[in-house]
Design goal:
single chain; alpha+beta; Heat Shock Protein 90; 2 domains; five-stranded mixed beta sheet; two-stranded antiparallel sheet
Length: about 375
C-alpha cells in the first residue's frame, strides 16, 4: 500500500500544526528514553540526560522533516510516492539534527575534533539511519489504517443518511398514492346520496367538510399520533353512519396513554375504510365496527373488527391494494418491526390487527 504513488496525499494539505502536534512530539520523547539509556551505557563520561537531549533533538528535527514533506508539495509526479520522499527527508535530517544536538549540548560547532564526541555523534547517526525509517514506516502504516477506519465510518454514516432519505422519499411517494384513494372513495359515497336525492345529503356534506378539514392538513405529514388518527376515524365513521344510519354501528375504545404515540398517517383510517367497503357495504344487514387501541409490553396494538360479510379474497390472492400499501408503509416506518394480520370471525366478520413499537412522536 505504501508503494502506490498518488497525486495527492491522504492527509489534508497545509495543516502545519501537525508538525508540532503533541501526540507526535510525545512519541518522539518517549522513544528517546531507551536510545539515551543505551548510549549512556556505552559512555561513562556523558550523563544520561545529555544523551536524552541529543537523541530528542535529532528525533524532533527528523519528525519535522518527515511532516513537512507529508504535506508539501501539494502534488507529486505519478512515479514518485510521497512516502519515499518522506523517508529521504528523514534520512537527510538525521545527521543534520545530530550535529545541531551536539552543538546545543557542547557549545562547539567543531565537535568532531574530540574523538569521544565524534564517536557519540556516529552512534546517534547510525541509530537514526538504522531505526528511523522503520519507525516512520510503522507510523505511516498505523496512520493510514486509522484514516481508513475514519473514512469507513464516514462512508457508513453517509450511506445511512442516503438510505434514510430514500426511505423518506418512498414513504412520501406511497403517501401521495394513498391520498386520492381516501378522497375519491369518500366523494363517491357523497355522490351516491346526491344522486338518490337523499335528504341527508346536506348533513353528509357538512360531515364531509369536517372530515376533510381534519384530514387534508395531515395528508403530507410523515409522522402523526394515534390521537389524530382516532379523530379522523371518528369523523369518517360518523360520515359513513349518516350515509347508512340503519346499517352501520360503531364504537371506539383507546387507552389514553396511547393517543400521544407515533403512528404513520392514515393507518387506522385504512383499516376502517377497508372494513366499511369490504365488510359492511356488501351485506344487506350491514354490521358493526369496533376500533380498539391498547398498549402491552411496550407495543401498541390496534384492532379493527367488523361483523360484515367476512373475508373476501382479492383478485390477486393478496391483501388488496390498500392493505398491501399499508403493510409496506408500516415496514418502512418501523424498520420491519411491525405486523399486520387479518383474521376471519365466527359466525362472520373480519378482525384486522396491527402491532408496532410504542414510540413517541420525534421532536422536529
Amino acid at each position: 500500500m505504501l508503494a502506490t504513488a498518488t497525486p495527492a496525499p491522504l492527509m489534508p494539505l497545509r495543516d502545519w500544526s501537525r508538525l508540532v502536534a503533541w501526540r507526535r512530539v510525545r512519541f518522539v520523547l518517549l522513544l528517546s528514553v531507551p536510545f539515551s539509556l543505551m548510549n549512556s551505557a556505552t559512555s561513562a563520561t556523558t550523563p544520561t540526560w545529555i544523551w536524552f537531549i541529543r537523541v530528542a533533538i535529532t528525533g524532533l528535527l527528523a519528525l519535522m522533516a518527515f511532516g513537512v514533506f507529508e504535506q508539501w508539495p501539494a502534488t507529486l509526479p505519478k512515479r514518485l510516492a510521497r512516502w519515499v520522499l518522506q523517508l529521504v527527508a528523514l534520512v537527510v535530517a538525521v545527521p543534520i539534527g545530530a550535529a545541531i544536538a551536539y552543538w546545543v549540548t557542547t557549545g562547539e560547532l567543531a565537535f568532531w575534533r574530540e574523538p569521544l564526541r565524534l564517536t557519540g555523534y556516529r552512534h546517534i547517526f547510525f541509530q537514526g539511519i538504522l531505526f528511523g525509517p522503520w519507525i516512520a514506516l510503522g507510523a505511516m502504516v498505523r496512520q493510514r489504517e486509522a484514516l481508513a477506519h475514519e473514512q469507513a465510518l464516514a462512508f457508513a454514516l453517509e450511506r445511512s443518511q442516503f438510505e434514510r432519505q430514500a426511505l423518506d422519499a418512498r414513504l412520501k411517494l406511497m403517501q401521495a398514492q394513498v391520498q386520492p384513494h381516501f378522497l375519491f372513495n369518500t366523494l363517491a359515497n357523497v355522490r351516491a346520496l346526491v344522486r338518490t336525492g337523499s335528504p341527508q345529503a346536506p348533513a353528509v356534506l357538512d360531515a364531509l367538510i369536517n372530515y376533510l378539514r381534519a384530514a387534508v392538513p395531515r395528508l403530507d405529514e410523515t409522522a402523526s399520533t394515534l390521537g389524530h388518527e382516532l379523530q379522523l376515524v371518528r369523523a369518517y365513521l360518523e360520515l359513513m353512519h349518516m350515509r347508512m344510519p340503519d346499517r352501520l354501528q360503531f364504537a371506539i375504545h383507546a387507552d389514553a396513554a396511547a393517543e400521544t404515540l407515533r403512528c404513520p398517517p392514515m393507518t387506522l383510517l385504512t383499516l376502517v375504510e377497508n372494513a366499511v367497503r369490504h365488510g359492511i357495504d356488501p351485506g344487506e344487514e350491514g354490521g358493526r365496527i369496533e376500533v380498539s387501541v391498547s398498549l402491552r409490553d411496550g407495543r401498541c396494538i390496534v384492532r379493527v373488527t367488523d361483523t360484515g360479510v367476512g373475508l373476501q379474497p382479492a383478485a390477486d390472492g393478496g391483501l388488496g391494494t390498500g392493505l398491501a400499501t399499508l403493510r409496506e408503509r408500516l415496514q418502512l416506518a418501523f424498520g420491519g418491526d411491525a405486523r399486520l394480520s387479518l383474521t376471519g370471525l365466527v359466525p362472520q366478520g373480519v378482525a384486522a390487527e396491527i402491532e408496532f413499537p410504542a414510540q413517541p412522536v420525534p421532536v422536529a
